[in-house]
Amino acid sequence: MKTIHCLNAISKYGLGFLTEDYKLTEDIQEAEGILVRSASLHETEFSGSLQAIARAGAGVNNIPLEDCAKAGIVVFNTPGANANGVKELVLAGLLLASRDIIGGIAWCQDNKEDANISKTVEKSKKAFAGGEIKGKKLGVIGLGAIGAEVANAAASLGMEVYGFDPYISVNAAWMLSRDVKHITSVDTIYEECDFITIHVPLLDGTRGMINAETIGKMKDGVVVLNFARDLLVNDEDMAAALESGKVRKYVTDFPNPKAVNMKNVIAIPHLGASTEESEDNCAKMAVMEMMDYLENGNIRNSVNYPACDMGVCKTESRVAVMHLNVPNMIGQVTGMMASAGINISDMTNKSREKYAYTLMDLDKQPDAETIQKLSAINGILRVRVIR
Questions:
Q1: What is the DSSP secondary structure assignment for residue 347, as one 8-state letter?
Q2: CA 67 to CA 69: how far, in whole Å?
Q3: Which helix (H) or strand (E) holds 90?
Q4: Given a cut of 90, is residue 150 above it in pLDDT?
Q5: Which tens digit of pLDDT belongs to each residue from 256-304?
Q6: Lowest mean pLDDT: which of 26-30, 55-59, 101-105, 341-345?
Q7: In sequence order, what DSSP letters do the residues of 272-340 get, joined into one string?
Q8: What is the pLDDT of residue 140?
Q9: Count of H helices and E strands in the chain?
């Protein structure tokens, strides 16, 4: 029986995919797997029994990835599971920024006691008039699961869509509508687009990417939308651009003390993935990833270890080895198995930066002494006997 601990309220739909071989535990120290959404794990002491953490969502800033990697704990996320929910909110943001819908709704509430409101509104509605998004140029920076869906949806609504992503995957490229213009320089988006939406991860190279310099390249009256990460936008520079009118509207799903007090900001309380469907999809993907890892050693959508898939284990034994990505590790591992008289019928080795993962199907079960010797090799972080 494998034990799973939920740090947040995880969708019952997702948890329903756990088989009878799993049980939920309230004790995090006995858990082999942790399911988490937004709870922080940076101060958590992990027990030796913990093998995997699955984040029901895309962002993993709440998880100590390096510490987990060193301990041989695989961290998963669920890219794309909430893509439709975020896409729909981005489209809402486009419409809210194009027409003063929020101001119009507020006017109706302020005048709800007016017995002649049906007549008064005809005189007052011009204050909330706006423009249409059809025919306008939208720049999408980042064409991952969410960015690609936003680009396709905007194109179907009649917008002229420019997409930029130097690292676009083959799968994402296939999914992209041919109406989306894939450009090779982000400056084209800054210089030509009426609306700009960003869908990139928060990295050292993207932190504060929307700043005084990049805003200076944009068209006067541009609308900027941020449904990706708060720190992609420099708040001080955005505030100045809004005050001057260089940026007409800033739509953000990440309210903070600075942003909510800026002029012409539409701040949304982090609702991008807050739909029942998104939560269900994320939970299901997180559960399925964790189960496949615990039962077969396969890794899909890990953020700290390489992808590796050898399917369902059908041999006498399968052993997983987490180790540093250094020379002669494979030689030492296979040599240890040979010295124990164990034949390796199939093997896969994958690496990701300084960490690597080796999965071996064996013709017989290794004994405890062999596993102990394997674990003692310098550079090996963890050895799991899966079967």
A1: E
A2: 5
A3: helix 83-98
A4: yes
A5: 999 999 999 999 999 998 999 999 999 999 999 999 999 999 999 999 9
A6: 55-59
A7: TT-SHHHHHHHHHHHHHHHHHHHHH--B-SBSSS--B---S--SSEEEEEEEES-TTHHHHHHHHHHHT
A8: 98
A9: 13, 16
Q: Nearest-CA neighbor of 2 among 300, 362, 296?
A: 296
Is the Cα torsion angle 342, 343, 345, 348 positive or negative in sign? positive
Beta strand 265-267 pairing with 247-252: parallel
Spatial distance between the Cα atoms of 149 and 155, rounded to a whole number of angstroms: 10
Q: At 303, give phi and psi (nearest 5°).
A: -105, -5
With a cut of 90, say whether residue 169 has pLDDT above it. Answer: no
Q: Kindly give, in sequence order, each residue whose CB lies less than 8 Å from that of residue 205, ignoring residues fewer than 6 positions away.
A: none
- Give backbone dihedrals phi and psi of 114, rounded to 5 degrees, phi first: -75, 115
Tokens read off for 211: 């700043």
Amino acid symbol at 147: G
Among 346, 359, 356, 349, which Cα is nearest to 385's?
Answer: 359
Q: Tokens 């700009």 identify what position?
A: 196
Residue 207 and residue 233: Cα distance in Å, rounded?
A: 7
Q: Give the pLDDT score at 173.
A: 85
Other Cβ atoms within 10 Å of 370 Cβ, number: 19
Residue 31 carries which side chain, given as an amino acid letter? A
Region of 142 on the Ramachandran plot (φ > 0 left; ψ -120 to 50 alpha; else beta):
left
pTM of the full structure: 0.83
Q: What are residue 250's phi and psi, to 5 degrees?
A: -120, 120
Q: Is 364 helix (H, G, I), strand (E, B) or coil?
A: coil
For position 291, what pLDDT does the model report?
98
Per DSSP bridges, beta strands 137-141 and 195-198 are parallel
Residue 372 has pLDDT above 90, yes or no: yes
Quick one: CA dihedral 178, 184, 188, 190, positive or negative?
Answer: positive
Residue given tokens 């019928």 in the structure block: 345
**Residue 293 amino acid letter:** Y
- Could you write out the DSSP letters of every residue in 38-69? S---TTPPPPTT--EEEESSS--TTS-HHHHH
